[in-house]
Amino acid sequence: MKLHTLLYVLVLLAVFSTMALADVKSGNFKGSCYHDSNCNGVCRDEGYKSGHCSRWGGACWCDT
């Protein structure tokens, strides 16, 4: 029974830790994103740690 509970807790930790590492598309960045520094500034203004441009499509993604 204890092993079952331990495995359940480990699965929950794994799920929630990956959620914390997810990127969020910037809500305020306008246009195509080609320079990480511009995206980073917008993301910081939105309250995120940092930001970066996507490799494909030129979107700005903020790091949670």
Automatic annotation (TrEMBL):
GO biological process, any: defense response
Presence of keyword Disulfide bond: yes
One Pfam family cited in the UniProt record for this chain: Gamma-thionin
Signal peptide range in chain numbering: 1-22
Keywords on record: Disulfide bond, Signal
Keyword Isomerase assigned: no
Listed InterPro entries: Knottins, Scorpion_toxin-like_sf
Location of the Knottins-like domain: 21-63
The protein's name: Knottins-like domain-containing protein
Organism: Caenorhabditis remanei
